[in-house]
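Quarterly update, task 2.4: shikimate-3-phosphate-bound model.
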Amino acid sequence: MTAIRSRPIKYIRGTLQVPGDKSMSHRAIMLAGLADGSSRITGFLPSEDCLCTLRAFQALGAKITRVDATTLDIEGNGGNCRQVLEPIDCGNSGTAMRLLAGILIAQPFTSRLVGDASLSSRPMKRIIEPLGLMGGVILSENNNGRAPLIIHGDRIRPASYVSPVASAQVKSAMMLAAMFAEGATTITEPQRSRDHTERMFRHYHVPVRVEGLTVTVHGRCLPHPGDFFVPGDISSAAFWMGAAAAKEDSHLILENVGLNPTRTGIISVLLRMGAQIKECIKGGNNGEPYGTIEIQGAKLHGTKIGGAEIPTLIDEIPLIAAIGAVAQGETLIADAKELRVKETDRIAVMAKCLRAFGTEVEEREDGMVILGGNNLRGATVDSHGDHRIAMACAILGLFATGHTTIKNCECVATSYPGFQRHLQAVLDGKLRLNTNRTKNRLTFEPEQTSVRSVPTTSITP
Ligand code: S3P
């Protein structure tokens, strides 16, 4: 089993580009794959999770050519999905399974969706119920509300649904199904979750309206073909952002990172902890703003995280917990019960890992309290097969005395292929140097640390 090794460093200096956004890569394949015509996707994330969606869409009749590792040419199936007789393997990916279920419920055939042990333990009732309102039948094979899922697709009708959870996967599953239903489907969530599907619907000309926390999709309307650029994943960038922010004397530039405001909660939290971060939007004409994040190291202090902020940083909480352990004082994470049903129970697993590094943690049902600032000691921990736990612990190792080993790390490839290479460059001080170091340093005015550049007008809110 692959282990990742980490050790203390003095600072992080240089420039880095992380791989493409996972959420957008899944959706780009799905929308281009359903369009009638050809689309080019650039910046695609070739991770295990997204490759599951890619293979599923090939099986459903889209012609996908991998021009290079991150460029796909997709000739969509025009909405005429081909029946897949074998099980569709979603691997470790909740996004692949839940979003594909939304598409398959509207097809005139039966499909079976399977996943690995982690995915087969995650709740699927959250999509079974709302998709069931739209017609078709979706069954949990073992009758336990979990995968494998049997989907008897049918002609479907629009529905109105108030979701008890703020989940982009639930919202997107319904939105994708709604494209095939005649009339208006509405989905209301308790808090705003990431809005990539809404933005991509607009880009692919599928009528969608957003009013407060309600999204309305007008069906029967399939995506038009269109090229799409996938920027770097802010959830992957977050590991280096957090590390550089908390390591004094660091100066890091992260290029081409997605800066969709429903995903940038991590920047707000780090700023509240005393970080010196500047973000600058450089583009985003396809509806997804992206740009540069510049970080200068500082001494951080604890903060409180909860409420509507949680969905904007849900995948970054293992990293926030790690940075909380480094920062002075208490970091409180609340309202984050969803973490218990991610790839692992991220509250329990992260609390265990933090304790192994010598940090005092109080585990709560919906989060944790971390008493940071005490000396961290290197540890041997197990990722439990969870990519974000593995990477968060590798970051902790940069701040701990001695050596850190994280076991069971193949999982990192589900979201961040190349993480180990980037970690090695950080450990060896071999990141690409900032091209105009003096200028980069001067652009960063300490009194402007919380400046967040205003998006260009071409970006649809
Ligand atoms: C995702 C939504 C989030 C997130 C996941 C990807 C998506 O899950 O945790 O990694 O692409 O829609 P929920 O929507 O279930 O919160």
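Highlight for this quarter: The radius of gyration is 21 Å.
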